[in-house]
Amino acid sequence: MKKVSILFFTILFFSNCATSKKVVNTTSIKNEVDTFLVNWHKAASDANFENYFGALDDTSIYIGTAAEEVWTKEQFAAFSKPYFDRGKAWSFTTLQRNIYVHKTGNIVWFDELLNTWMGTCRGSGVLEKTNDSWKIKHYVLSVTIPNDDIQKVIDAKKKNDAIFLKKFNE
Asked: How high is the pLDDT of residue 7?
């Protein structure tokens, strides 16, 4: 009987270990990430270079609004440094943000509408949590264009698109 009890508890223990899953509190994670992103945008507004670029992972990519703006963290920091040094970088305030949490709880992706000096923009990105801190792995900033205005925008950028495509295809 003792052997059966030990065998039963051993099987029960290992089956619980195999079926137990980490419970992810998505509400808490979404709140953490929202605060992180608010502070990241505030760091730019406050021209706090260290906090702004400290939020980016060393391997992060920042994609800006122009076709050629695909930057590593190092490239984006070099481009941005003069703005931060002048004490005024840019000011983006969140109008709306959606945050999505991976089942592991350590990866999130998001999209956000932003009020900026360019008008309404959309940001989207991916963050990863390692060593108890979130880092931006990928960020994309886009200018939003109302459908009724798209033809005017196409016409306005036709010349510059042709120049870009010529260089791009060389």
From this structure: 47
How far does Cα 9 stand from its chain's mean position?
46
Is 82 exposed, middle or buried, given 0-12, 13-18 or 19+ CB atoms closer than 10 A? Answer: exposed
How far apart (Å, rounded) are the C-alpha atoms in residues 9 and 1?
12
Average model confidence (pLDDT) across the chain: 90
Question: What does the pLDDT look like over 14-65, one tens digit per residue?
Answer: 555 544 567 889 999 999 999 999 999 999 999 999 999 999 999 999 999 9
Amino acid in position 120: T
CA-wise closest residue to 136 among 48, 63, 31: 63
Q: Which of 85, 67, 81 is nearest to 143 (CA)?
A: 67
